Amino acid sequence: MLTETCVLHLCRSQPVATSRIVEHGRPKHPRHRWLPVAGLADVLLHSLRCLPELESLVMVQSAVGRRDIELEFLYAGLQGRRNGRARAVLDLVIPRADSVLEVLANTHFRRAGLRLRRHVFIPGVGEVDFLIEECLVVETDGSTHFEPQAVKRDQRRNNRSVLGGYLVLRYYYADVVHSPDEMVAEVLAVLELRRNGKFDAR
Questions:
Q1: What is the dihedral of CA 20, 21, 22, 26, to 10 degrees?
Q2: What's the pTM value of the predicted model, to 2 decimals?
Q3: What is the CA radius of gyration of the chain?
Q4: pLDDT per residue over 91-136, tens digit each?
Q5: CB half-sphere exposure, 183, CA atoms < 13 A
Q6: Which domains are delineated in the chain?
Q7: Long-range contacts of range 81-89, CB-CB < 8 Å, 24 or more positions apart?
Q8: Residue 38 buriedness (CB in 10 A; 0-12 / 13-18 / 19+)
Q9: Residue 65, exposed/middle/buried by CB under 10 A (0-12, 13-18, 19+)?
């Protein structure tokens, strides 16, 4: 039973006009191998046209990252002016993402015009999620980073990053998902402080 806020998306040969149901018409690609549901290609193409941008981005990033579908295939299925918004979402897919937080943070940082590199190896520290403007390390941490050993490891990585001449900021699920504007504002503020010499030795 559909709740008041739930909207069901269906892909079927004989659409029926019903409230809170979005009809996508006849399936155009192979269906799921054993479940009575639409195949992945139809699901992703329809999500790119229907769902909010970040929701569809996460779905596509996951499928492409698992190599369940090719990004080029999705681009080919979204030709024409009416699919411009959907193609723009595909442009946000990154070659490698270790978590949904990386995908979302990368999008927010790029939108802010920040110059960044992902998965950068820093001697003595290891691989960091983001290196912004070649001076600021930004890590996006999921729930596994709350375990005691992980907390100690991350703090030591922070220390070694600072010893290597980098500034460090860490963000968690609530920051990236629920307060992205605040996260970006803090990153920009730190970069501005650095440009103004606030971190120089006195």
A1: -170
A2: 0.80
A3: 21
A4: 999 999 989 999 999 999 999 999 999 999 999 999 999 999 999 9
A5: 26
A6: 8-90 (no CATH), 100-195 (3.40.960.10)
A7: 83/48, 83/49, 85/49, 85/53, 86/45, 86/48, 86/49, 86/56, 88/53, 89/48, 89/53, 89/56, 89/57, 89/60
A8: buried
A9: middle
